[in-house]
Amino acid sequence: MDEDMDRPRRIVFLGDSITASGDWAGWFPDADTVNLGVSGNKTDDVLERIDDVIAAAPDDISLLVGTNDLGHRLSVEHVVRNIQLLLVELRRTLPGTRMLLQSIMPRGAEFAEQVQEANIHLWQFAPTVHAQYLDVWPALAGDDGGIRPEFSGDRLHLTPEGYEAWLVELRPALERLRDEPPMSRPIQIIG
């Protein structure tokens, strides 16, 4: 038991290129970080990779996904349903893992309405699977609902300044997550 207490917490960062490009080991040197971000991934792709998450046996999962679905003109309902399925399956198979669901980040202003609609549903759903929710929208969005220009050169991917603005929100959220009790048993899905 003492050995387990001495090992660093394993955090899986799960998502698309925004996650894949993160320097997680450098940003969280006291944690055992696993980068499961894959460039171009949509929610369907992340669902197909769920076994990789389970095999990593994480203490914590930080999930950021959904923007590529919207970029490929998939519906808000599709994005929300897939993220809900992913969270339910992760909770079922990893009951002792703490989960942090992050809001879909702002991108080009033309996506603002869809992103905000999806985020409202995700915020409402997260507590049902005992996941914490981090709303990164206020830190990254400009007045027009698009990502602020200094945070993205292509209105999607983050600049170094964009990563810093995200980390200002993410670091304390992961600290708070660590203080939350994990689920002690799998949830039962009735239906």
UniProtKB/TrEMBL annotation:
InterPro entries: Ester_Hydrolysis_Enzymes, SGNH_hydro, SGNH_hydro_sf. Pfam families: Lipase_GDSL_2 (PF13472). Residues 13-165 form the SGNH hydrolase-type esterase domain. Signal peptide: none annotated. It comes from the Bacteria. This is SGNH hydrolase-type esterase domain-containing protein. It comes from Leifsonella bigeumensis. The lineage of its organism: Bacteria, Bacillati, Actinomycetota, Actinomycetes, Micrococcales.
